[in-house]
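Narrative of accomplishments. A recurring question from our advisory board has been how the design workflow behaves on a single, concrete structure rather than in aggregate. To address it, we present the structure tokens for one chain from the evaluation set, followed by the sequence designed for it. No filtering or post-editing was applied between the two.
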């Protein structure tokens, strides 16, 4: 009996050692030479020390290459659960040293298992992707396996936060799982995402292009908007994931954790009284306001390199996580265009799904004009942001800082689409359009017939600005809840969040709305 017992223990030790060894020392060294961590090293850095519990260590796939009978314990992916700052998360980490991290049937079954458990118990799921894609030698079974993962991504959407970290190649059908998840991280110079790679592009279009130019971090971080965060290396990327998790609730039934940064709730900033230039055409940086009002001046911006004319991200007010959407006058005067509308709309919907209050800082002169925007679907994309804010049932607050013109004003979480509480600074200009455009429309004949048309235009602009382009008329109508001193913005927002803490809002019964995708 003792001999049999020891044999069993030795067998287990041997099998576990084989699984831990994965692709072997040579391939691990190659991973390091490429500036990448191994799958297990990534998990160790992501999770709290000693908290990782692994599943399916001994699970076997069908083998490596065609005609290769060797099977690898773990089948090229490490799955399990652990803690981030004491909070439970589920994780899978693809191992490029084992058959290129390719996804086969057993590989996918392991991922599906932790995704199912994450939804059952209500914890975030984090995927560390480093894979050559579908395992070709498994044929349609590999495609079916991807389909199972996609199905679970959709079922988990809005139930638990889903985070994808691209730490190597991600091509073909493999890109669609990250695309469905809530946030995508990419690592510079080592991660790529594309539906068809450079070789196929050259075959079909006869165009030479590198992997970086086709689907690298610069492309997806600033042009396509696929990546929400980019990092210089694996270590910084994993650190940012830990930071993001601290802003989020574990599931859609919970609230985000409170974190007291010892920042007084009644703190004022007199410098904000002078933030807005006297010249309405002069720009300023909205980040000055953002960092001034948030707890500890801490702000995690989402998609900072994409659609920079609008700023989206997470911060805290009075210890509570908030989602912030702000026009950025320093870029394109803060206008809304197709990319800005899409970026903000998606962010608003995430916050609403996970009980994160929304705050809009408004300085928007309108929608971007021109045939490129019209042909690119500015109507449809602008409607996404309008739909997202209107649909949101979380507490919604708006602060009109300066310009709030036309339809763009309505879209940016206005009182007219049932924002809960909205404030305006004394510098706010709330009107159908800017003073110059309004004067040219209303007084066109008078200006054209004047001896000095430019002087007449300036006179009519001043008249319009004094009459309409200020917050006081809107406040008299009840469309503004209060005109506040800029220095008091932080305190007023925190008190309003406290008042709205118990908000309940239920829409009409329906399967789901039909957002203008």
């Amino acid at each position: 009996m003792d001999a049999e017992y020891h044999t069993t223990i030795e067998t287990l030790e041997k099998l576990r050692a084989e699984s831990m060894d994965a692709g072997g020392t040579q391939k691990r060294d190659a991973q390091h030479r490429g500036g990448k961590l191994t799958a297990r090293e990534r998990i160790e850095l992501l999770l709290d020390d000693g908290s990782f519990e692994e599943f399916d260590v001994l699970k076997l796939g069908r083998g490596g290459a065609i005609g290769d009978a060797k099977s690898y314990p773990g089948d090229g992916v490490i799955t399990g659960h652990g803690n981030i700052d004491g909070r439970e998360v589920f994780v899978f980490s693809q191992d490029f040293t084992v058959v290129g991290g390719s996804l086969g049937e057993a590989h996918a079954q392991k991922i599906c298992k932790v995704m199912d458990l994450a939804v059952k118990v209500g914890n975030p799921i984090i995927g560390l992707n480093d894979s050559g894609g579908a395992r070709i030698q498994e044929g349609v079974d590999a495609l079916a396996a991807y389909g199972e993962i996609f199905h679970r991504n959709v079922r988990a959407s809005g139930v638990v936060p889903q985070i994808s970290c691209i730490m190597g190649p991600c091509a073909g059908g493999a890109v669609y799982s990250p695309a469905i998840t809530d946030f995508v991280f990419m690592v510079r110079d080592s991660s790529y995402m594309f539906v068809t790679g450079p070789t196929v592009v050259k075959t079909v279009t006869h165009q030479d292009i590198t992997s970086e130019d086709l689907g690298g971090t610069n492309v997806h971080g600033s042009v396509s908007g696929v990546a929400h965060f980019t990092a210089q290396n694996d270590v910084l990327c994993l650190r940012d994931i830990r930071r993001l998790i601290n802003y989020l609730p574990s599931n859609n039934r919970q609230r985000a954790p409170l974190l007291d940064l010892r920042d007084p709730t009644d703190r004022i900033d007199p410098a904000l009284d002078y933030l807005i230039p006297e010249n309405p055409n002069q720009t300023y940086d909205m980040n000055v306001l953002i960092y001034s009002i948030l707890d500890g001046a801490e702000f995690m911006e989402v998609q900072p390199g994409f659609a920079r004319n609008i700023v989206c991200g997470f911060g805290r007010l009075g210890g509570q996580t908030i989602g912030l959407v702000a026009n950025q006058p320093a870029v394109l005067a803060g206008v809304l265009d197709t990319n800005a509308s899409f970026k903000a709309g998606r962010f608003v919907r995430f916050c609403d799904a996970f009980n994160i209050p929304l705050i809009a800082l408004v300085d928007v002169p309108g929608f971007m004009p021109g045939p490129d925007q019209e042909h690119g679907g500015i109507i449809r994309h602008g409607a996404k942001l309008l739909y997202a804010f209107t649909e949101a049932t979380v507490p919604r607050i708006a602060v009109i800082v300066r310009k709030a013109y036309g339809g763009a004003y309505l879209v940016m979480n206005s009182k007219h689409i049932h924002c809960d509480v909205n404030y305006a600074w004394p510098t706010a200009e709330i009107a159908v359009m800017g003073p110059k455009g309004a004067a040219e429309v209303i007084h066109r004949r008078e200006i054209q017939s004047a001896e000095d048309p430019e002087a007449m235009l300036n006179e009519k602009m001043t008249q319009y600005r004094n009459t309409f382009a200020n917050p006081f008329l809107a406040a008299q109508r009840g469309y503004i809840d209060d005109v506040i001193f800029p220095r008091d913005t932080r305190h007023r927002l925190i008190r309003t969040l406290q008042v709205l803490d118990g908000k309940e809002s239920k829409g009409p019964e329906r399967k789901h709305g039909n957002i203008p995708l």
